[in-house]
Amino acid sequence: MRVRPYIPDKDYAFLSTWVTDERTHAFWSANRFPYPITPESFHDFLEKNAAEWTDSAYVACENSGQPVGFFCYSVNTEDNTGFLKFVIIDQAKRGKGYGKEMLQLALQYAFQITGAEAVQLNVFDENTAAKKCYESVGFVERTVDKNIFAYQDELWSRCNMIVSRP
Fold this sequence. Notes:
34% of the residues lie in helices and 36% in strands. It is of the alpha+beta class and 166 residues long. The longest helix has 16 residues, at 98-113. The two termini are 22 Å apart.
């Protein structure tokens, strides 16, 4: 597996097939852009996030070059903490170690290239598969904000997780 910058014209066609229902979309994006996603809404969102938070978008690719995962990453230079956002794996690849491998590469990049001392992310407590994946690469729960996101008739809690440089 390799990680490279997201190329909109090349990668969107893959990523757009990974979110096939509203619940998955809400878990992934906290509904920051509409479902179903469109190239315009998604790329406008990425551009806005890059401008506001210095987020950069990446894809994880199999050795063949086919994208199998996506995430955004930024570093807060004031406290030297990286932040992962919008982490997703191709639904056909979930549960097979792809997420763990992608996260390991993302953390390697964060610690070795950007020099972050720690990396954090947010995940909905109800997204147990994602939370388990994050824990498998060393993330630990830092805080939980209870019942802050409304999805249909449910209230979800947001968990902030962190991993420090080894």
